[in-house]
Amino acid sequence: MNKLALILVALALQAQEPRIDGWPTYNGDYTGRRYSTLTKINADNVKHLGLAWSYRLSAQGAGSIKATPVVINGVAYISTPDHVWAIDARTGREIWHFEWKGKGGNHIGNRGVGVLGDALFVVTPDCTLHSLNIKDGKERWNKEICDLDQYYYASAAPVIVGGKHVIVGVSGDDLDIPGYVQSHDPQTGEMQWRWYVVPQKKGDPGMDSWPNEDMARHGGGMTWQPPTWDPELNLIYVTTGNPQPVVAYKNRPGANLFTASIVALNPEDGKMKWYFQSSPHDTHDWDATQTPVLFDAEFNGQPRKLLAQASRNGKFFVLDRADGKALVSSDYVVTNWAKGFDEKGQPIPDPKKDPQIDGSLVTPNQGGATNWPPPSFSPRTGLFYVSAAQAYSVWYIYDPGDNPQGWGGTDRGGWSQNMIQAIDYKTGKVKWTHKWEGGGMSGLLSTAGNVLFSGDGSSANLVALNATTGEPLWHAGVRTSVSNGPITFEMDGLQYVMVGAGDTLWSFVMHE
User: Fold this and answer.
1) Is 407 helix (H, G, I), strand (E, B) or coil?
2) How far is CA 382 from CA 43, 325, 377, in A?
């Protein structure tokens, strides 16, 4: 291995460790844990946490902040569709603002930015990947990553892998187009490789899980969450969306690979190493795009390289991330749509719970037992935290034909309860539950100070809980629901917590 390669590996391994002086990536590091080793804010003193500043987005119609802030060298970078801001993390003063006059696309949200050195990367709804100068927000280049005319759009935060790959996924509007993830050169923007979620031609892996080549090529599987990365194994972990048609399913018998799956790819060429299907033959719009969280820990008395996911379908999985073998498969809320797990640890769908002409009572509902807000894992407690919902609805199908098009069905809502579930990774059992009075979900943050930060559903507060017990410790009003994941970092010897809610970025500080 040459000197440059050794330097890149060393930098990559450092990137796996939580930073204390910033929050340099969407999840804080490349593991997806959203865990900080900072302890100046802890379970004993968090009640003294106070407001440092708030910043309301300066652009009219900028929308709600669904991105996680990235903080580097005392500057916070936050995005919404077609916009990026650089904010002084000490004062909340705007440094620069980038606006893109886009050609359209779905403006449902933007998850955030990626940064490599002096370059910032962001996608816009009209299928464009942009590279900006981090100092002044001026554009370096832009490249089209998907076709807006096919109803793709872009929303996921780019992830920089090994200093030489900008990894981006695509979003879609539930039409019969294939999902994919691709890599771009950070200097030029040129595409390096593309991996399609669903088979594109005869002989491709997974083709035998579809009834024919045409159904496979139009099978969906959007990749609208940032992947995670293990530099030692040199694998990125991509999670994929639901198959098409979404709810009507008669024309796509089979597992419909590699939709609703966790997939390990080589970041150098995009080749698949292994897959695990979280929701085989999904018939309920339960895309499995939830964060694949990486951690090294003991399992059955042996040190293991693990991956955990709380999937939208209500199932919790712990895998060996080197080979994708399931070690734990369990329920983290009550579910009734599966008959158990197969020898691979994958759920076995119960056809009786598929959408029916006269309705079928199913839990979870279409929103899922969880959704896009990111979870957290604390090596201090050994608990995996996820914003969850116990929700029931009746699922109908209204296109009973053998070749349904589009949705062809839907669900009608019923009773629901939102909560945080703290799951023991060794057993898959829920250790504690904290219920919210309102609905809605929030991203999570855990710390070595034994604190778990979250929004409280729809009640417009940022909340701190005891990470070991779930006991509430502190809250602060933020005017509307927390719409992304909180972050924390140290600056000038002080620990800060930052979060977005609606169109406002809020910063809290613990003074010594």
Assistant:
1) coil
2) 17, 20, 7
**182 or 483: whose pLDDT is higher?**
182
- For residue 116, count other CB atoms closer than 10 A to its CB: 19
Bridge partners of 509, per DSSP, are: 50, 496
User: 29, 126, 282, 285: which one is catalytic?
Assistant: 285
Fold of 3-398+407-510: Methanol Dehydrogenase; Chain A (2.140.10)
Sequence ranges of the domains in the chain: 3-398+407-510
Angle at 31 between CA 27 and CA 32, to 5 degrees: 40
Q: Give the span between the Cα atoms of 392 and 367, in whole angstroms.
A: 10
The per-residue pLDDT for 4 is: 44
Of 300, 333, 327, 297, nearest to 315 by C-alpha is: 333
Decide if 285 is catalytic: yes
* Residue 182, H or E segment: strand 180-184
Beta strand pairing status for 445-447 and 35-36?
parallel
Cα 112 to Cα 102, 117, 480, 488: the distances in Å are: 17, 17, 20, 16
Q: Are 504 and 498 in contact (CB under 8 A)?
A: no
Two structure tokens written together for 421: 């579930």
Give the C-alpha separation, 409 to 404, whole Å.
Answer: 10
- pLDDT score of 2 more than 60: no
Is residue 17 very low, low, confident or very high in pLDDT (cuts 50, 70, 90)? low
Task: Identify whether the C-beta of residue 218 lies closer than 8 Å to the C-beta of residue 244.
Answer: yes
Tokens of 376: 């957290």
Gap between the Cα atoms of 492 and 495, Å rounded: 8
Give me the DSSP letters along 117-134.
TTEEEEEETTTEEEEEET
Q: Whole-model pTM?
A: 0.96
DSSP symbol at 370: S
Using CA atoms, how far apart are residues 374 and 479, in angstroms rounded to an integer? 21
pLDDT, tens digit (0-9, with 9 covering 90-100), for 21-33? 899 999 999 999 9
Pairing of strands 293-299, 235-239: unpaired
Look at the chain and count its residues: 512
